[in-house]
Amino acid sequence: PSISIRVMKFLLVSTLLATAGAFSPITPQIRPSTSLSASKSDAFAATALATVLAAGAMAQPAQAITKSEINQLSYLQVKGTGLANRCPEVVGEGSITPKSGQKLVDMCIEPKAWAVEEEVGSRGATERKFVTSKVMTRQTYTLDGIEGDITGGSNVVFTEKEGIDYAATTVQMPGGERVPFLFTVKNLVAKGNGPAFKPGFQMGGAFKTPSYRTGLFLDPKGRGGTTGYDMAVALPGLQSGVDGDDAMFKENNKTFDITDGKIEFEVNKVNTEEQEIGGVFVATQLSDTDMGSKVPKKILTKGIFYARVDTPV
User: Where are the beta strands (DSSP E) in the chain?
Assistant: First the structure.
């Protein structure tokens, strides 16, 4: 009997220890760090991983990634990471002197900050100021694949021709008002202040901003620019007579408004070997007019850009 009692006590203690071990915290195993003589592919994989993690964590700034590194990634490696909405960054401080007949290709324009102009009251007086706003659009607001002709000489001139040169974007002001606009550089003609792309080189010019909506768009009352009703069918009494039609003239008569915008670029990085340039930009344009029924607001956009000088064969 004494042996049976000792066996039972042993089993009871073992069970208690096993139960306590099941609820105890598990100490993670720390793998030894890799050696400093890592291969180039390993270094690139670590950089790409850090870039993806930085893109997902808003509190940390995104790591820089070059065009050659992006070209090594597959579609599945880019999908869902936000890298498709980012512009490559350039490494180097060289100089490129373009010639007439060359093109500026693979141009990417990535906004980083937005502001909307509004009237701000202070001490009984009002003044117009740009108020920092928050982008509400998902990561689809970067322009990419833009290309155009270069005219060489004493002052470089870039004429935009084609590419993904517009992106529907919406920002939210501090008060909660949301302002939609079409971020674009259509028909841009940018004139430079020198004959070569080098750190400190600046170029800028005007561009056209098409309507945020096309003529086929129908509002909640079924009215459109090229199709739909001529008036709100549910409100015939308010639109009868001259006075009634005047009150709702802008709502009933949709227009495709084309406004002007301006953009300024400044080059701060040049890779002579890869013929790449990069830098910052500042652009101003008008917001959506809701097809002529609203007064547009002025939008200020700041960010970075990338482009490559190419010689057509």
Answer: 103-122, 125-135, 143-151, 157-164, 166-172, 178-184, 186-192, 202-209, 259-271, 276-286, 298-310
Amino acid of residue 51 = T
What is residue 206's predicted lDDT score, i.e. its pLDDT? Answer: 96
Sequence-distant (6+) residues with CB within 8 A of 264 are: 202, 203, 204, 281, 282, 283
134 neighbors 112 (Cβ within 8 angstroms): no
CA distance 162 to 158: 12
Q: What is the pLDDT of residue 117?
A: 94
Identity of the residue numbered 290: D
Dihedral (CA of 56, 60, 65, 69) sign = negative
3-state helix, strand, coil in the chain (%, to 5): 20, 40, 40
- Residue 301 β-bridge partners: 114, 283
Give CA 57 to chain center in angstroms.
17
Positions of the chain with pLDDT lower than 50, given as ranges = 19-61
Model pLDDT for residues 177-225, shown as the tens digit of each residue: 999 999 999 999 999 999 999 999 999 999 999 998 887 888 887 888 8
Which backbone phi and psi does 66 adopt, to 5 degrees?
A: -90, 170
- Tokens matching residue 300: 């200020």
Cα(149)–Cα(312) distance, rounded to whole angstroms?
Answer: 10
